[in-house]
Design a protein that fits this description.
This protein is mainly β and 298 residues long. The protein folds into three domains: 65 residues, Immunoglobulin-like (Sandwich); 84 residues, Sandwich (Immunoglobulin-like), CATH 2.60.40.10; 74 residues, Sandwich (Immunoglobulin-like), CATH 2.60.40.10. The chain has two helices and 20 strands. Strands 7-13-12-9-10 form a five-stranded mixed β-sheet, with no helix packed on it. A five-stranded mixed β-sheet has the order 14-20-19-16-17, with no helix packed on it. The N and C termini lie far apart (129 Å).
Length: 298
Amino acid sequence: MYFSGEGADTDGYITGYAWRSSKGDNLPETSSFSITTLTVGTHTIYFKVQDNDGDWSSEKTVTLTILASQNNLPTAYIDSISPNPVQYGSPIHFSGYGIDTDGSVIAWLWSSDRDGDLSAQPSFTTLSLSAGTHLITFKVKDNDNTWSNETTQQVIVQSSSSSDPSNQPPVANVGGPYTGSINIDITFDGSESYEPNGTITLYRWSFDDGFSTTGMTPKHQYTSPGTYTVSLEVTDDDGQTATATTTVQISSQPPDNGGIGTLLSQIPIPSPLLLGLIGIIIAVVVILSFIVMLKRMR
């Protein structure tokens, strides 16, 4: 922001200048200057001049509004992830950087959807990635404490035996399709999954509503009706994976679990012929009872 002012004295000359702001910002005592540190908001700027006799003029004013600057998001870039694919237990190097057009990058974060946070450095090397397929996420933060959008890259960590043609991957069986109603547990069953020449060590479920879990037969509740895609990823003891999907249909009303409505619906309705036969039997019983009563009266 550039300020410039001047004054005139009919019987002398100008020797001093004074600027002030209604918001209390310090301003230089010169005829012109530039400043970038004014407080955000609306200022009344006052200006006056002093002559060679030491007298000050009256103040002139102007209104000035300083708007808050809009922070531009930084941008994260994955420079390289190498080697990819990599053998389990071997070193893999990650390198990334960020750009902030209105500031500077002050923080970095790498993470894996399988192993969680990996590093807070722009570049690093690790030997500890688990076997399987990873979705690697990288983001940066600027000096306004604003994180960038995430950038991602897939990394495959091969088990030591994955190159052996006799080593077969596991087979995922997600079960289903499933049905249920809102706010009631549904049991999902992955017990039919198997590994031809080893064991399954991890069952990873995704329920298409923002939730996931692990386990062979987990329970899950949905809070909204609809059709959801359920996926199961299984991992064997060699780090190989397989995935299967199915659907679950969720209704808004819970099922009738044996209430009075169910009980009444289970009562059989007699046919017209049966109703007629029952009527005849009742009539015969009434007549015989009447005859017996008359005999006793005699």
